[in-house]
Amino acid sequence: MSAPVALITGAAGGIGAATAEALHEAGWRTTGLDLRPSLTDLPLIADVADRGAVADAVDRAAGRFGRLDLVVTAAGYYEDGVDVGDITTGQWNRMLAVALGGTVNTCAAALPHLLAAGTGTVVVISSELALAGSTGDLHYVAAKGAVLGFAKSLALEVADSGIGVNIVAPGPTDTPLLAPDSPWRDPAYLATLPLGRLVTPAEVAHTVLHLATEGRMYCGDVLSPNAGAVI
Predict the structure, then answer these.
(1) How confident is the model at residue 1 (pLDDT cuts 50, 70, 90)?
(2) Would you kindly state where each structural domain of the chain is located, as residue ranges?
(3) How are beta strands 42-45 and 29-34 bridged, if at all?
(4) Using CA atoms, how far apart are residues 90 and 16, in angstroms rounded to an integer?
(5) What is the enzyme's class at the highest EC level (predicted)?
(6) Pairing state of beta strands 70-73 and 42-45?
(7) Could you say which DSSP state residue 41 is in?
(8) Helix ranges restricted to H, 73-200
(9) Phi, psi (rounded to 5 degrees) for 155
(10) 140 labelled catalytic
(11) How many CB atoms lie within 10 A of CB 96?
């Protein structure tokens, strides 16, 4: 039997890159979908906010490997330090287009392949902030909250089709998305976390791997590696 195939959006950096690496080390073949080349078996360039480009990329991956077993929607970006009244229309629209639109576009393109096979897994990356709320980054939190609701609804829609859909909602993670002066890196904030540190991308990646390999009992569930930020 050929090795399983995973498609990861946002695979060129951060959580997406760590997920691609963990899957590769576990014997998976990987396709990375990003604005930049990724260290995957099939690196593809596309903006996840572009539904047509995403559909073409997903079809290319499925055609190349002959199957699609796992989809991980990790593409995204983070902005903080913006009060709600100062968030521009462009900032709102772009955040929603990438975080929510990218998730919807990827799932819409991949589901026909998964449904045809009668099996597969979708892991949607949301955020711990979608569970607890935050200040200074409301457009990010709103988009990740919408992603959470979308994934739960999709899980219900396809549960009887052999497709598992679940959510990983990491807490502040030690990736380049967090600037050196980010408040999430402030020692005073880290001291409030029971584990006293940021989550690593590898820890988030192994949560995804768990869902992909041992997670058949989950349906629309949220796993949140967050160092105790939300208990």
Answers:
(1) low
(2) 5-223
(3) parallel
(4) 25
(5) oxidoreductase
(6) unpaired
(7) S
(8) 89-95, 102-117, 129-132, 138-158, 187-190
(9) -60, -45
(10) yes
(11) 17
Closest by Cα among 133, 150, 154, 151 to 142? 133
Query: Nearest-CA neighbor of 178 among 34, 79, 36?
Result: 79
Q: How far is CA 80 from CA 48, 51, 137, 219, in A?
A: 21, 27, 5, 31
Distance of CA 16 to the CA centre of its chain: 7
Global pTM reads 0.95
Q: How confident is the model at residue 120 (pLDDT cuts 50, 70, 90)?
A: very high
Separation between Cα atoms, residue 129 and residue 134, nearest integer Å: 6
CATH class of the region 5-223: alpha beta
148 within 8 A of 129, measured Cβ to Cβ: no
Read off the pLDDT of residues 49-83 as tens digits, 9 standing for 90 and up: 999 999 999 999 999 999 999 999 999 998 877 88
